[in-house]
Amino acid sequence: MWDGIIVGGGLAGLLAGIRASERGKRILIISEGVGSLTYSSGVVDFGDVRRLAGQEKHPYALLGETLVHTSADYFQVLFPDYEGEWGRNQEVLTPLGSPRRCGMVPKGLNAKALRDAQRIVLMAPEGMKDFFPEVIKANLVKIHPQASVEVYPFRLERFEPWYAIGKPVMGMDYAKFWRSDLGIAVIKDLLNRLAQEINTVQRIAGSEKLVVVFPGLVAGFSASLRNALSEVPFPVVEMTSFPPSACGQTLYETLKRKFRVLGGELLVGTGVKRVELQGKVCHKVIVPSKGRDTEFSARSFVLATGGIFGGGIEVTPDASRETVFGLPLFIPSEWTRAEFLGEQPYARMGIEVDRDLRPIASGSQEVILENVRVVGRMLAHWDPWLEHCGGGVSLASGWLAGEKI
Ligand SMILES: Cc1cc2nc3c(=O)[nH]c(=O)nc-3n(C[C@H](O)[C@H](O)[C@H](O)COP(=O)(O)OP(=O)(O)OC[C@H]3O[C@@H](n4cnc5c(N)ncnc54)[C@H](O)[C@@H]3O)c2cc1C
């Protein structure tokens, strides 16, 4: 029997698994798919924690401001290359070169160096999918009128066969290349060549406050690449990218690795279809595998199936249902609003819980299942898009579930 089974291996489920494994618990994560982290930009948004914690029923109100801080500190210990100052937003570049504020970012993505740049050089890898250098340049010019902005196109021998047949190079392919030994040698050469070219036109890089913008590096997860970048004579600022994002994907892979290193078991590619309950206690989850059902028993369970986007809530024209335990859902009376980028009430759909994250009956505090905890996007009463707290709620609830298993 497992100490804990976590259903869903996205940000919330993996964090719960890591924390519980660290505490010496035997944990199994069962996950149908990869989770929304692979689509996210890899930065963690916390939103205005104090204000949201004062909002009745919001997950931050249940968890408390201190616990949200604790989970942020915990994440920073797991990922020392992330930075963020509590209560202050960091700035990163969107895939189109405009600024975006967020809570915690890999250091390489922090765009603060651009604020007083006098010259910005945008590195433009040939054939990179969903990368639009002229649009980025136009935005950089608009946002940093103090600086001259130029595009520096380059191509890599490694991808010549791809260029030749017009095959786009995904951000992830470039990111993998930059982390290889050959990639590190090439990037050093490329940036040193750029430094020399600048010097040959009688401009000393250091005195002119040059900043280089480089898409798709993901240096935060590679010490060798970070070292190589620290040796060039100007700051290099990375960019976020459109989904699937190399940074989000690398964060996901790293979380999985950390969980496994701690002894956790991860079953990816198959989902929980049924559960066995006795009164208010869950005993088993049932997973279809190789044409037959396999049962897994545990003392404690975590529901981390990611809401509508993750597959944890199924919505049809007739009804909405939680797909694993059949738990009751909070469903706003009004679903959508006409304003495309405005508030969409359905985002707040989810499961209502008590302070221990256990599901409660609608309109009362009665706990429905004593040994099940609900985390991340499965929780009711929050909106990651409007409140900019997607990563924060997932980290804080995942951390608490990991403590409680
Ligand atoms: C496109 C996009 C961009 C985003 N960008 C950001 C950002 O920049 N910053 C930020 O802070 N947040 C961002 N978010 C929000 C953030 O990623 C999510 O809030 C957070 O990752 C949700 O985590 P989760 O673990 O609750 O769900 P998910 O990551 O969706 O994970 C749910 C997991 O459960 C699995 N699952 C579902 N049903 C079953 C089943 N029956 N059995 C087993 N497994 C099952 C799914 O396959 C999936 O792996 C973004 C989200 C999206 C969708």
Description:
This protein has 405 residues and is of the alpha/beta class. It folds into two domains: 2-85 and 249-404, 3-Layer(bba) Sandwich (FAD/NAD(P)-binding domain); 95-239, no CATH class. Helix content is 32%, strand content 21%. It has helices at 11-22, 49-53, 59-63, 65-78, 133-143, 160-165, 171-179, 181-200, 223-230, 246-261, 307-310, 384-387, 390-404; strands at 2-7, 27-31, 82-83, 90-93, 99-102, 105-106, 119-125, 148-154, 210-215, 236-239, 265-268, 274-278, 281-289, 292-303, 313-315, 320-322, 372-374. Strands 1, 2, 11, 12, 13, 14 and 17 form a seven-stranded mixed β-sheet that branches. A four-stranded parallel β-sheet has the order 8-7-9-10, covered by helices on one side. Helix 1 links the parallel strand 1 (2-7) and strand 2. The mean pLDDT is 93. Residues 7-13, 30-37, 39-41, 43-45, 243, 271-272, 304-306, 309-312, 323-324, 376-377, 384, 390-391, 394 line the site of flavin-adenine dinucleotide.
CATH-scheme architecture of the largest domain: 3-Layer(bba) Sandwich
End-to-end Cα distance, whole Å, is 13 Å
Helix vs. strand class: alpha/beta
Count, helices: 13
Order of helices and strands: EHEHHHEEEEEHEHHHEHEHEEEEHEEEHH
Summarize the structure.
With 405 residues, the chain is an alpha/beta fold. It contains 13 helices and 17 strands. It is 32% helix and 21% strand.
